[in-house]
Amino acid sequence: MRFPEKFLWGGATAANQCEGAYNEDGKGLSIQDVLPKGFKLITDEPTADNLKLKGIDYYHRFKEDIRLFTEMGFKVYRFSIAWSRIYPTGEEEQPNEAGLRFYDEVIDECLKYGIEPLVTISHYETPLALAKKYNGWADRRLIDLYVKYCRTLFERYKKKVKYWITFNEINSIIHQPFMSGAILTPKEQLTQQDLYQAIHHELVASARAVKLAHELMPQAMIGCMILAVTIYPLTPNPDDIIEVMKLERNTYLFADVQVRGEYPAYAKRIFEENNIHLNITNQDKEDLKNVVDFVSFSYYSSNCASADPTKGEPTGSNMTTNLKRNPYSKVSEWGWQIDPQGLRYTLNRFYDRYQKPLFIVENGLGATDELIMQADGSYTVEDDYRIQYMNDHLIQVSEAIKDGVDVLGYTAWGCIDLVSCSTAEMKKRYGFIYVDLDNDGIGSMQRYKKKSFDWYKNVIATNGESLIE
User: Fold this and answer.
1) How far is the C-alpha of 226 from the C-alpha of 162, rounded, in Å?
2) What is the rounded distance in angstroms from the CA atom of residue 385 to the CA atom of residue 338?
3) In this structure, what CATH number is given to the domain that contains residue 363?
4) Which of the residues 76, 368, 397, 435 has the least number of beta carbons within 10 Å of its own beta carbon?
5) Does residue 34 belong to any structural domain of this protein?
6) What are the catalytic residues?
7) Smallest Cα–Cα separation from 81: which of 124, 25, 130, 111?
8) Is residue 469 part of a domain?
9) Residues of the chain whose pLDDT is less than 70?
10) What are the pLDDT digits (tens) for 268-323?
11) In a domain, 467, yes or no
């Protein structure tokens, strides 16, 4: 079960879910600061019940946290830079030096311990001012503002950061247009025309960032990041097969453009049937030819689909309300199907399609953890369920590598407990490290190693040989 010698083992976090300090050192508001209930926009101002405003106080404790990552043996650490910490409204002439200095320290701390930084440039945290002024990515002007932000990061960190990701789960804009695209138009009122024009703007921005990265950092690798919505037909009925084919294109479209440098042939039918007429300039077409170096993705679960909406049992998850439960899969507390083999399947599907290196940058199990005192007076969490989940998924990664898939690495999501993106609560925990904070924002913020901490440490130390089939 040994992995390639240079396999990048590590973990992943997002600024808006862990940093806190939402109004310190010149930071502006991001769209996350007005999402106290997860996906649902309640108000356009921060409210006291938004746990993301305080996060897990990573802003002040990152050195302690990175030391813990080092103890586990991380080779890579994926984190995001908060756009509004660098450009508070997105339109300043000069960046916020205090924000840049913070990420100087984070990156330097990683490098001190031999950890490669993997930086997500935009992880669901567009400056709120750009949502209010331009309706987010619905407006073409965000392209230049994003590229200016990218230039600032590339010039500052070009000698220190090798791996970059342009947008987190870029295809999620279809499901969550405000969180992913900063589009204030209510989802039920947003036309397909406006939605796909916003998608186009993001794709052009990503391609221009790739071009700029290649110019300024020829030694670096810059990739796209896809939310892997892995879907099986509910039955062998050909209608279900075709339904899955159509749904998969909501995922593939985004990677196809960023890997191949142009819109795929099937997009023409999608646009015609939905009366979508994109404003694509000749310069846009040239920009899109700047393709990514690798494809990264998140994978948590798989689902089923049927052409007949009355067939099958709903998943019960707030993430996949239109999909069906797989009767052969177990289900997590939050209704997410547990399907390790789906990860092998997804890796093979992406690699067969693109022949580009792949990077699993999110995978893990969200669960309710119980902090318990041990005989020696120390505290831990007996999270064997998380160990089982990750062990089984990593075995399937090994199988995919044997299949011939080029996998750069694996960063476990929420390697330290953080505020959930989908529900904005602490109860749903992913980490190897427990953070003493509850859903009401009460707790000491003390860090405790879970049982999975030493398990993952051993997996990394043995380069996967300790995994159990």
Assistant:
1) 20
2) 11
3) 3.20.20.80
4) 368
5) yes
6) 362
7) 124
8) no
9) 1, 42
10) 999 999 999 999 999 999 999 999 999 999 999 999 999 999 999 988 777 778 89
11) no
Half-sphere exposure for 429 (CA within 13 Å, toward CB): 24
Measured CA to CA, the distance from residue 337 to residue 449 in angstroms comes to 27
Q: Please give the pLDDT value at position 320.
A: 78
Structure tokens at 308: 């007949």
The total number of structural domains that make up the chain: 1
pTM: 0.97
Which domain, by its residues, includes 157? Answer: 8-461
Q: What is the pLDDT of residue 378?
A: 95
Q: Which residues neighbour 309 within 8 Å (Cβ) at sequence distance 6 or greater?
A: none
Whether 2 is in a domain gets the answer: no
The two three-digit tokens of residue 273, written as one number: 């049937």
